[in-house]
Amino acid sequence: MLKSKTNVLIATTVAASLMQACGIPDMTKKVADTQLPERFKLEANQQASSGSVKWQDFFDDPHLSTLIDTAIANNKEINIMLQRISMAENEIQARKGEYLPVVKLGASAGADKTAKYTRNGAVEDNLNIARGQAFPTFLGDYQFGLFSTWEIDIWKKLRNSTQVAVYEYMASTEGRNFLLTNLVAEVAHSYYELMALDNQLENLRQNIALQQNGLLVVKQLQIYARTNALAVKRYEAEVAKNQARQYEIEQQIIVVENRINTLLGRTPQAIERASVHFMDIKPKALAAGVPSELLQNRPDIRKAELELKAADLNIDVARANFYPSFGIRAGVGFQAFALKYMINTPESLAAMVAGELVAPLVNKNAIISEYKNANANQVKAAYEYEQSIINAYTEVANQMSNIDNLDKNYQLKRQQVDSLVQSIDVANQLFKSARADYLDVLLTQRDALEAKKELIETKEKQISATVDLYKALGGGWQS
C-alpha cells in the first residue's frame, strides 16, 4: 500500500513538472558583442595602458593629492555608495538563508469551550455519563517545541538567486569604483580651473597696471598738447572695464573653491594651490594601450558586465517558478491540556512531519510576465554592456585627438602672445614719438590681454584633456 502511494506521488510530480515545462514561453538570450578594434589609431604605441596607474602616482602636485585623498574619505556620495554596498552584501546573507532550513522555538497556551450540540459536544456528554463526572467547561491546550520548514532547492532557484545577489554586490562595488574615477577627475578639473583663474586674475592685474601707466603718459602728453581729452577718457574707460572684470574673476574663484569643498564634504574654506607655476605644467604623455584593456580597467564596463551576468541568472530564477516547489514541515515538542502533564513522556510528546508539493496550474500570468520581464531585462543589460564598451572606446579616441590638437593650438597661441607682448612696447614708443595713434596702443594692449587669456585657457584645456584621457582609460579608482 505504501509503495503504491509513493508511485502515485512520483507520477504526480513528474506529470506536474512536464505540464509546467510545456507552459514556458520560448525566449532567447542576447549574447553581448564585445569586439573592439586592435588599436585606437595606426600610429598608437602598444605600451600598457596608463589607466592602470594609481592616482597617487599620476598626480604629482602635493596640494591636489591632499584634496583628492580628503575627497575620497569624506565625499558624501562615496559614503552613500558604501552603505548601498553594505546593503548588497547583507542581501547575499539573506538569500543564503532562504535555502537552509528554518528552525523556530515556540510555545503557546489556550483554552476552548465546545458547543453542546456539535459532534465534539456530544462526545463530551457521553464521557460525562460514562465517567460520572463533569467534563471541564474550558479545556486547556498547552504546547512548546521546535518547528522547522525547509524548501528543497531542486531547481537551483534559491542558489541562483543568491548568485544574482553576489553579482549585484560586485556590480555595486564597481559602481563605487566608477564614482571614485569621476570624483578624482572632478576634483582635478576644479583644482586646475582654480589655478587658471588665479593666472587670469594676475594677467588682468598686470594689464591694468600697464594701462594705468599708459594713462599717466597720455595725461602728461595732454598737458603739452600732444594729445586730447578723448585719449584720456578712452584710457580711463579701459582701466575701469578691466578693474570691474577683476571682481567677476574673484567671484568665479570663490565658486570654484566652494565646489571643491563640496566635493571634499566640508564647508567653504580656502584651497591651497601653487598657481604661480601653472603655465609651466607639462601635460603628461599617456599610453592608451590596446582597446581590449578597457574591459579590465573601466569600472563602468565591469559593472555592466556583472549586471549582465545577474540578468542571465535571473532568467533561470524566473524559469524555476514554472516548476513545482517541494517543501518539508516538521515539529517536535510537548502538548497537554494541563500544565502538570506537559513534561510527561512519552504521553505528552508530540511530533509532526509533512511534505508539500505545490505547482501553479491555472492563471500563470504573473509567472509568465515575470519570466518575460527577466528575458527583456537580460537583453537590455546586454545592450547596455555593449553601449558602455562603445562609449569607452569613443571617449579615449576623442581625448587622444583632443590632446594632439590642443598641443598644436597652444604652440601657435604661445607665438601669438609673444608677438603681441613685443608689439606693446613698439606701439608705446611710436605713440610717444607721435608716429602712432593712442587707439593703436589701446588695441594692442587689448589684443595682448585677450591672447594671454586664451593661452591660459588653452593650458587648462590641455591639462583637463590629459585628466579626461586618464579617466577614459579607467584610471582614478586604484589606490
Overview of the molecule:
With 479 residues, the protein is of the alpha+beta class. The chain contains eleven helices and four strands. Strands 1-2-3-4 form a four-stranded antiparallel β-sheet, with no helix packed on it. Helix 3 (62-74) packs across helix 6 and helix 10 (365-432) packs antiparallel against helix 11 (438-472). The longest helix is centred in the C-terminal third of the chain and has 68 residues, at 365-432. The radius of gyration is 40 Å and the shape is elongated. The protein starts with a helix and ends in a 7-residue tail after the last helix. The model is unreliable at 1-6 (pLDDT under 50).
Helix fraction, binned, reads 55-70%
Tally of helical runs: 11
Compute the gyration radius: what is it?
A: 40 Å
Unreliably modeled segments: 1-6
Spatial arrangement of strands, main beta sheet: 1-2-3-4
Gross morphology: elongated
Largest sheet: 4 strands, antiparallel
Strand content: 5-15%
Mean pLDDT: 85
How does the helix and strand content classify structurally? alpha+beta
